[in-house]
């Protein structure tokens, strides 16, 4: 997904909840009780990032910012 710059835009929704990315057929017998953003290799949690982030409450929306003038910091 290419994220284009937009000075007038604040936070944008990348995914409006975990159910738009993952499927769980056992919502009652095996409910999802937490969700965590991980590094690309799933071995650790990334450093806090204010440009791409997850809302802390269910349904755990993924959001990103489009109004960062110099791009995202490394």
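Sequence proposed for the structure above (74 residues):
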């Amino acid at each position: 997904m290419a994220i284009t710059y937009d000075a007038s835009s604040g936070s944008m929704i990348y995914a409006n909840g975990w159910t738009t990315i993952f499927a769980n057929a056992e919502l009652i017998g095996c409910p999802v009780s937490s969700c965590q953003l991980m590094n690309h290799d799933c071995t650790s949690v990334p450093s806090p990032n204010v440009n791409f982030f997850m809302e802390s409450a269910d349904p755990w929306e993924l959001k990103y910012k489009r109004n960062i003038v110099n791009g995202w910091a490394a």
